[in-house]
Design a protein that fits this description.
With 361 residues, the protein is mainly alpha-helical. 35% of the residues are buried. It is built from 13 helices and five strands. β1, α1 and β2 form a beta-alpha-beta unit.
Length: 361
Amino acid sequence: MSNNRTSDSQTSDNSTEAKRILTGIKPTGIPHLGNYVGAIRPAIQSIQNSNDDAFFFLADYHSIIGCHDPAIIHESTKAIAATWLACGLDPERVTFYRQSDVPEILELSWILSSSCAKGLMNRAHAYKAAVDANMEKEDVDADQGINMGLFGYPVLMAADILMFNATHVPVGRDQIQHIEMARDMAGTFNHRYKTLFTLPSAVVDNDIPLLTGLDGRKMSKSYSNTIPLFGEPNPQVSSEKQMHKAIMKIVTNSQLPDEPKDPDDSALFEIYKAFATPEEIADMRAQYAAGIGWGDAKQTLFDKINDEIAPFRARYEALMANPKELEEILQMGAEKARRHSRKQLDKTRRAIGIRPLAKLK
């Protein structure tokens, strides 16, 4: 960890200060190409030549809000941890931990919820969307099927962030509201009790591409249209072949070889741009204009992606075959995280009046 870190008591927008970056990964499925391009690759690249503190965690308590299959939670946690490590995340350089291994986070979540206005939670986008969906149905209660985990999700997310006084939190645009809520909760606590929490800033990179899936919609597990990064465990079919098979399924139009094609209307070209150099992109654009066949375009795309992903496969497969090593890495990260969380929680408890009545010999 860098010694150039943010003070625990500092509260500011941190525009020119040393950064403490925090990224959460929810284990609810097997990592796919969209996860790699949209989160994994840019996050790892952003810290490789930086002295900033960086916290990466598996948000397993967040995942149980919408996924109630224990096997999926367990296997996804394993696969996602292995993926991040295989793709280059250095557990010595960052603090890489599992949320459930840091119990102080849940205690802080309760403390924050005890001073967080319910009206703030009522305005959360995910909760409002669920209520709106119910209101479109007949004879259905507005809160039908909505659990308290979904309703209080922003509080737990705030605890994830504020526990480590993260200054910068990379998020998608749909998550900006949660960072604003964390700032609100931090400000309320600091004003009511004592200035302990940094006001975090959302970091949105508009240059990160959102990949299209196999069916032309946004690549998403919920649409079942993803291209697996390393594939499902299958001794009969290698992960490389699984990726190749998925890419060959990408939907294209009915244009024949030698017919000029519009690259800007092609999911294949869109994905290709996320892996290619500017020179390669220009060359591929010319090939589209010259009428490249869809089969050739798909093979070129696979080759380009595979050139980048293939070096990670051996490490991924070794980690998946050795869960003990994964667990040791996560426990090492949990201990690093708890060095911060124990101190922060003790300060927080004392600030709200929960402290020993007297010193005992």
